[in-house]
Design brief:
This protein is mostly beta strands. It is built from no helices and ten strands.
Length: 204
Amino acid sequence: MLGNRELLTGLQLQTGGGFTDVAAVVGYFNQANRWNWGGVVQQIPYTLRAYALYDTLLNGTQAIAEEEFSIRQTNRDATVILSYPFNRFHRMEFTGGLSTSPLTVSSTREFLTLFRDSFCRARTGLTCAERYWHRAASAALVFDNAIYGATSPLLGQRYRAQIQPMFGTIDMYTILADYRKYFMPIRPFTLAFRALHYGGTGRG
């Protein structure tokens, strides 16, 4: 509908942690000229809960502890994208951006003890928070001449070779090499082959 321009929006609302539980993304990409450019801003929350039950001592008294853990990480990214197509199938891609990831870990313990033939409950809580951030850039060589059917590629090949350095709380390099090949030996069956390397290196 926008011709040589693309607009990406997404919004997911849920209850529990307020604004940190909102997932949202806004992106724009302009392909009107030979140099294609755009950007993406997004917030993606991740929440993990765990539960443990074990025997312990509370003030010298045998007790049962019920402990609940809550781990909340909210990834916030702002990325600029630049792409130069050599032809319909071959292009170079460059990205750069900033990312921050506030991390909160909370633990709540409830103790159940038997005191004078009656059960007593005591509750304690602990919360710690930390913020991770980094700057990232990437360069990638991309090829894609796959012919798509209704649900997936049928013929052709695709590959992506990418390196992404990251600096900040964690310093590392991420290297990606992804190759895919599609054959149709007998219609309408397609065989798909993939070779993939994805790994990180560096002191972080």
